[in-house]
């Protein structure tokens, strides 16, 4: 089935939404598939834009980026290291963003043609569309922030969700119908997307181990248990005449399932044989026998 309700039959401009303490493979796995395709003639025009709250490198460790005036609230599920730091704080992997959420939205608002402007890594001014939006998951989706010093004797004070800025960004991007082809989520990236309300009435899946909590938080979604990946079409939203998100939403279960999702997305665009060739090049055993919406025996 070709991509529906899309202005571009072959999407080329990918935007990934990053936030502190996301799961590395959730983004790196699908993006490495795309990176491999760029070495082929079919993918020579593919671009990647990394969007985040600020232009500071985005940490995968449970520590705030440099220069912010907040810190993470203690996370009970994370152990403590011998030096008293939260577990993983010394595992310093950071990703440099291309553009901030606000800069990208401001450019879209100002142009009125569905395109945004930015300066790429080589200092060139480029104009791109948001063809595909990729949202990774991870423990960062369920972490909270407090003002620096807010964990002292006065109590925690104000607290807000770590992905609050990402949720607002995705909501405006999708409600403005600026996504041209599809939104793809990995793991609890579907939890982040569900908080925008854009998944209400549509089928979706998420990380198997986080399934109950995600489903409880977002009761308007038709959650599909034990599915490796789900492809939701716009026409799934029926009834009250409310205009919903008019593009496809592809969701996947935990972590490595995001690579399966991306390979299925690639197969939709370039053909299944092409996708198998990319999987072989990566020496990845793609679970291509698990069709859309099927229960994956691996989870049972």
Overall, the morphology is globular
How much of the sequence is in beta strands? 15-25%
Tally of alpha and pi helices: 7
Structural class of the secondary structure composition? alpha/beta
Q: What is the radius of gyration?
A: 19 Å
Written account of the structure:
It is a single chain. This protein is of the alpha/beta class and 300 residues long. It has helices at residues 24-37, 101-111, 164-175, 189-194, 211-217, 257-270, 272-281; strands at residues 13-17, 47-52, 58-59, 70-72, 94-95, 99-100, 115-119, 125-135, 144-147, 160-161, 179-185, 203-204, 222-223, 229-232, 248-252. Strands 1, 2, 6, 7, 8, 11, 14 and 15 form an eight-stranded mixed beta sheet that branches. A three-stranded antiparallel beta sheet has the order 4-9-10, with no helix packed on it. It has a two-stranded antiparallel ribbon with strand order 3-5. Helix 1 (24-37) runs parallel beside helix 6 (257-270) and helix 6 packs across helix 7 (272-281). The longest helix has 14 residues, at 24-37. The chain starts with 12 loop residues before the first strand and ends in a 19-residue tail after the last helix. The model has no long low-confidence stretch (mean pLDDT 92).
Identify the notable features of this structure and list them briefly:
alpha/beta; 300 residues; three-stranded antiparallel β-sheet; eight-stranded mixed β-sheet; Rossmann fold
List the helices and strands and how they pair.
Blueprint: E1 13-17, H1 24-37, E2 47-52, E3 58-59, E4 70-72, E5 94-95, E6 99-100, H2 101-111, E7 115-119, E8 125-135, E9 144-147, E10 160-161, H3 164-175, E11 179-185, H4 189-194, E12 203-204, H5 211-217, E13 222-223, E14 229-232, E15 248-252, H6 257-270, H7 272-281
Parallel strand pairs: 1-2, 1-8, 2-6, 8-11, 11-15, 12-13
Antiparallel strand pairs: 3-5, 4-9, 7-8, 9-10, 14-15
Helix pairs in contact: 1-6, 6-7
């Amino acid at each position: 089935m070709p991509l529906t309700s899309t202005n571009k039959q072959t999407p080329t401009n990918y935007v990934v939404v990053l936030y502190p303490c996301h799961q590395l493979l959730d983004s790196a796995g699908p993006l490495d598939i795309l990176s491999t395709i760029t070495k082929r003639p079919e993918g020579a025009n593919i671009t990647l834009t990394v969007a985040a709250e600020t232009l500071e490198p985005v940490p995968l460790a449970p520590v705030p980026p440099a220069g912010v005036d907040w810190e993470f609230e203690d996370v009970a599920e994370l152990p403590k290291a011998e030096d008293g730091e939260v577990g993983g704080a010394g595992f310093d992997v950071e990703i440099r963003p291309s553009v901030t959420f606000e800069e990208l939205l401001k450019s879209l608002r100002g142009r009125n043609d569905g395109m945004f402007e930015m300066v790429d890594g080589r200092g060139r001014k480029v104009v791109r569309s948001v063809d595909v939006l990729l949202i990774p998951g991870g423990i960062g989706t369920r972490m909270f922030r407090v003002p620096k010093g807010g964990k002292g004797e006065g109590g925690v004070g104000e607290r807000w969700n770590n992905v609050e800025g990402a949720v607002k960004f995705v909501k405006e991007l999708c409600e403005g119908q600026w996504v041209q082809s599809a939104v793809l989520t990995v793991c609890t990236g579907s939890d982040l997307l569900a908080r925008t309300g854009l998944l209400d009435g549509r089928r979706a899946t998420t990380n198997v181990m986080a399934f109950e909590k995600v489903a409880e938080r977002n009761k308007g979604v038709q959650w599909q248990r034990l599915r490796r990946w789900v492809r939701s079409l716009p026409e799934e939203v029926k009834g009250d005449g409310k205009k919903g998100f008019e593009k496809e939403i592809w969701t996947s279960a935990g972590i490595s399932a995001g690579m399966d999702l991306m390979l299925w997305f690639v197969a939709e665009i370039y053909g299944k044989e092409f996708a198998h060739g990319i999987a072989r090049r990566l020496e990845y055993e793609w679970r291509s026998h698990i069709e859309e919406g099927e229960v994956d025996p691996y989870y049972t």
